[in-house]
Design brief:
- By secondary structure, the chain is an all-alpha fold.
- The relative contact order is 0.13.
Length: 103
Amino acid sequence: MIHIGLSHFLFVSIVLFSLGIFGIVTRKNAVMVLMGIELILNSANINFIAFAKFGNFGYQGQIMALFVIILAAAEAAVALAIVLNIYKTFSTVNVDEIDTLKD
């Protein structure tokens, strides 16, 4: 029988965090950058839940994960509104092509 411990959760979290950073650094599309940010927030959620379970912190980890989910939903709504406005103005969502600000 395989015992799943804290190190397994931390490994999955490190992989998600690394993929999120990789997505933010290498992608030019703003939507892909937002997906990288979501991966980073999900890795934080895994850490909160894992440390709450294995550290006997009660429900504090779950409550923090709930706040991170609420933050991610608000971030997605605001960021997608900004991306749509940028697309309407510049006809592109590539972050390296958007280099001027409107007065």
